[in-house]
Every structure is written in structure tokens, then in C-alpha cells.
Design brief:
Blueprint: H1 9-20, E1 26-33, E2 37-44, H2 48-52, H3 59-64, H4 71-78
Antiparallel strand pairs: 1-2
């Protein structure tokens, strides 16, 4: 739904999981890169998630308000095409 977020993929996945997590749940987040190594983080969800869960929009709400663009627009935004 959002394309390849590269380094942001693990964190984006974590935010989506935290939207659904309940006290006592265990979460394992693992990321890896193209030969650059990997990291793993283990979390245990505490009661504080209940009081803090509505401080920001849920991940799905951010995904739903995205603006879909075609590849040509992406190339222009990122200045990937240079005319000589």
C-alpha cells in the first residue's frame, strides 16, 4: 500500500503493530539490509499503551490519506531525470 520505504519499513510495521497491541503482548521487530547487517528489537507492551494510544493518528489513517503518484511524477519530485 505504501511501496518500498526501505529503512522505514521496520518502523512503519512497528507503528501498525502498536496500533493493535495490548498490555502484556510481546513484539519482535527485525530489520535487515542488502549486506549491511540486521537488527532485532524485542518489546513487551505495558499498561501505558492504553493511555497513550490516541495521541496520534493510527498508521492506517496515515496510509489512507496518501496521495498516489505515477512514476513520472516521482521522477520529477526526486529530480532523477536530468536533461542535457
Amino acid at each position: 500500500m505504501v511501496g518500498n520505504t526501505y529503512a522505514g519499513a521496520a518502523v512503519l510495521g512497528l507503528t501498525a503493530i502498536l496500533d493493535e497491541a495490548r498490555p502484556g503482548d510481546r513484539v519482535l521487530m527485525v530489520s535487515y539490509g542488502s549486506g549491511a547487517g540486521s537488527d532485532a528489537f524485542s518489546f513487551q507492551i505495558t499498561d501505558k499503551i492504553v493511555e497513550r494510544c490516541d495521541r496520534a493518528l493510527r498508521t492506517q489513517a496515515y496510509v489512507e490519506r496518501r496521495k498516489t503518484i505515477d512514476y513520472g511524477t516521482y521522477v520529477r519530485y526526486r529530480k532523477k531525470l536530468h536533461m542535457h
